[in-house]
Amino acid sequence: MFTNPEQFANATKTLFELQMMTFSALADKAVKGVEQVVALNMATAKSSVEGTIAAGKEISQAKGPKEALDVAAAQVQPGMEGVVAYGEQFKEIIAEIHDEFSKAADAHMAEAKSNLSALIYDVTQHVKPGSENAVAIVKQAINNAFQGYEQVSTATKQARKVVEEQIAKATEQVSTAAKPAKSKKK
C-alpha cells in the first residue's frame, strides 16, 4: 500500500516517538504525584506523632482519671480535623494527577489520530485498483478503535466522578462527626 517502504518507516517512527514522549511525560507526572503523596504522608505522620506525644504528656500530668479522660476527649476534635484535612489534600493530589494524565492522554490520542489520518490519506492515494474494500476495512477498524478509546475514556471519567462524590460524602461525614465532639468540649 505504501509506494515506498521509507514512508512506512517514517510514519512508524513518528508514532513510536510520540508514544515514547507521552510515556515519559506520564511517568514523570506519576513520580511527582507519588512524591506529593509521600510528602503528605510524612507531614501527617510527623504531626500525628507530635500530637500524640503532647497528648500523652498532658494525660500523664492529669491530677485524676476524670481530668485524664477530659484531656483525651479534647484530643478527638483535632484528630478528626486532621483526618478531614488529610482526605482533602489527598483528594486534591489525586485529582491533579488524574487531570494531568487525562490531558496527556487526550493530547496523545488527538496527535495519533491526526498522524494516522494523514497516513491513511497518503496510503489511500496510492492504492491499486481493486483494493478499495481493503482500505475501507482498515479505515473502519481504526475508527472503531478510536471510538472504543473514547467510550473507555468517558466511562473512566464517570467512574472518577462517582469516586470523588463518595470521597466527598465520607469527608463530610467525618466533618459532621467531628463537630459534635467540638461542641461537647465547650
Describe the protein's architecture and organization.
This protein has 186 residues and is an all-alpha fold. It has one domain. Helix content is 91%, strand content 0%. The longest helix has 56 residues, at 5-60. The radius of gyration is 28 Å and the shape is elongated. The termini are far apart.
Shape: elongated
How many beta-strand runs? Answer: 0
| Count of spatially separate domains | 1
Q: How are helices and strands ordered from N to C?
A: HHHH
Give the uncertain stretches in residue-range form.
none
Distance between the termini: 81 Å
Major β-sheet annotation: none
Could you estimate the helical fraction of the residues in percent? over 70%
Number of alpha- plus pi-helical segments = 4
Q: Helices and strands: which structural class?
A: mainly alpha
CA radius of gyration: 28 Å
Task: Determine the strand fraction and express it as a percent band.
Answer: under 5%
Q: How confident is the prediction overall: mean pLDDT?
A: 78
